[in-house]
């Protein structure tokens, strides 16, 4: 893939659920490009199609109509084996951290390294420890998830998603189960690591408190992409920086 090309390029995507008379269109003519190092936040009401679009980009559903290119590779008509292969280029972060409770923090991250790369166990351990250190969990590497806070668990999920330096990270409501400060800490870690690694992030959220980390904000409504705008900081009356979309 040429460095000037988008990590993900979506053109004229339509998607449907059901068959026959029950067939219902969920996504309508979606067009979107996301570039390396760019953080794009997607907002919109429940049922607007955000999660469906995220699952298509992530190779978790098959593309039905239109074009979707990940790292220059077309996903329309892709076989299941190709989708599995393409998913290795994506890091996933969900509202539920989806950690394995019988593994320590380090082992949860290490598993992602070993699944994706043919490296020695000692190298996988070292890589996992470095990544956990980068999210502020050097002192919690051998803790099990049940002994960690919600914010700490989500930091492990971030470490697991980014440990292999994927070109793209998809995050679905990563702060929804966290308090204000923990949520802020989590997205700032994501922002820093994404910029350091040149990773593109598409983050779906209802949390207006974190919109300022975005380079762009896109809005979904009734299956339509209704806004795609640069995120420009402005000053409010108290002198603090806030953010609003700017076309």
From TrEMBL:
| UniProt-recorded name of the protein | ABC exporter ATP-binding subunit, DevA family
Output the SMART domains linked to this UniProt entry: AAA
- CDD domains noted in UniProt: ABC_MJ0796_LolCDE_FtsE
Q: Name one GO cellular component term.
A: plasma membrane
Give the Pfam families listed for this entry: ABC_tran
PANTHER family xref list = ABC TRANSPORTER (PTHR24220:SF376), IMPORT ATP-BINDING PROTEIN (PTHR24220)
Keyword list (alphabetical) reads: ATP-binding, Nucleotide-binding, Transport
Organism encoding this protein: Anabaena cylindrica (strain ATCC 27899 / PCC 7122)
Q: Which residues form the signal peptide?
A: none
Domain ABC transporter span(s) in chain numbering: 8-247
SUPFAM superfamilies, from UniProt?
P-loop containing nucleoside triphosphate hydrolases
What Gene3D superfamilies does the record point to? P-loop containing nucleotide triphosphate hydrolases (3.40.50.300)
**Molecular function per GO:** ATP binding; ATP hydrolysis activity; transmembrane transporter activity
Q: Source organism's superkingdom?
A: Bacteria
Q: What is the lineage of its organism?
A: Bacteria, Bacillati, Cyanobacteriota, Cyanophyceae, Nostocales
